[in-house]
Amino acid sequence: MRFALSEEQTLLQDSLNRALADLVPLERVRRYPGEGGPAEVADVWMHLAELGLPGLTIPEEQGGLGLGMLEAALASESLGKVAAASPFIGATVLAPLALKLAGTEEQRRLWLPKLATGAVTVGVAISEPIAGARDGGGVTAANGRLSGQALFALNATGADLLLVADRSGGLHLARTAHAAEPMPSIDVTRRLTALTFEDTPAEALASNGALDRLRDAAWIMLAADTLGAAQAMLDKAVAYAKERKQFGRTIGSFQAVKHLCAEMAAELEPARALVWYAAYAFDHAPDEAPLMAAHAKAHLSEIGRFIARTSTEVHGGIGMTDLLGLHFWFKRIGQNRQLLGGPEKVREIAARIQGLAA
Fold it and tell me: Which of 3, 129, 179, 295 is spaced 20 to 30 Å from 271 by Cα?
């Protein structure tokens, strides 16, 4: 049994890491909150499309690379490491998966080739039936039309297509919403949207339990994204400890600081194996996949928060300033923690999966 990445998987992630290091420097991340933010995101996505990233999980016959969830998790980790803003989760992972699991042949033929080239982006609104509705959220479907409000939609601003889950767990494709309003969020690298539907036309996908598979895939992607963001914060803390001097010596030579860095590394390394196995299980051990995805999402939520806090402490007072940009990863980890269910909610779902809770 092999417990490491293949040579091709390692090459894929290394190549993406090198490309993203040039494509998404911190200076670009700082521009996301401004008026030019959407243009920055579109430019990044265009360059990623040239690398073939949008077609990562799409079958080769539809113009994609035909790779699996583990490769997608490696890409998500790389994107989280540079705090890249992109429609990756929706357009590259969830929409193709929904079409493969529940779409008609005509829907797959129409949308998958466009998704593979990056020409189409997809907003994903599946939060209510997974994490529970709040503030009046929830969408109902009747006679091919949607009504209600979907909150915390991912990558929905300016999206060409919307993937929407109704309250009963059914999935639908909508070309547009009646209204789309930005939702306040701590993370400027991944904007959330409230979508309002008023008797809006939509195409229903097959009702075959596909939402549970989308939930598992989304949990894995968010866990991998947190893994990358946490690794970036750890790397920055270690680099800072090696160069910052206090009392005539680098702070990394003090035992207390050494312990902080060692604790972060000790917590993060096993988490990487957990994310990898959850992604592997999604394709190769479907009976284990729901529980492993839940474990990955809940555990990385806790580990990510610990590393975000500890890395900031290693940087001392400067860690809370805009100078180093640590807050971009800190806030991304915080948002990942709550999207599609915080760790408490995810563990509750995991208990139901195991028959331990009603």
Answer: 129
pLDDT digits (tens, 9 = 90+) for 224-248: 999 999 999 999 999 999 988 888 8
193 forms bridges with which residues in the sheet? 153, 182
Which phi and psi (to 5°) does residue 162 adopt? -120, 130
Measured between alpha carbons, how far is 47 from 10 in angstroms, rounded to an integer?
A: 21
Span 210-353 CATH architecture: Up-down Bundle (1.20)
Phi, psi of 244 (to 5 degrees): -75, 130
Helix pair angle (105-117, 95-102), 10° resolution: 160
Prediction pTM value: 0.96
Query: Which CATH superfamily is 122-204 part of?
Result: Butyryl-CoA Dehydrogenase, subunit A, domain 2 (2.40.110.10)
What is the per-residue pLDDT across 263-285, written as a single tens digit (0 to 9) for each? Answer: 999 999 999 999 999 999 999 99
Cβ count within 10 A of residue 6: 11
User: Residue 229: CB partners within 8 Å, gap ≥ 6?
Assistant: 80, 81, 83, 304, 308, 329, 332, 333, 336
User: How many whole angstroms separate alpha carbon 194 and alpha carbon 71?
Assistant: 30
Instruction: Name the CATH superfamily, with its identifier, for domain 7-117.
Output: Acyl-CoA dehydrogenase/oxidase, N-terminal domain (1.10.540.10)
DSSP 253-292: GSHHHHHHHHHHHHHHHHHHHHHHHHHHHHHH-TTTHHHH
Residue reference for tokens 């490309």: 19
Phi (first) and psi of residue 74, to 5 degrees:
-65, -40
Domain ranges of the chain: 7-117, 122-204, 210-353
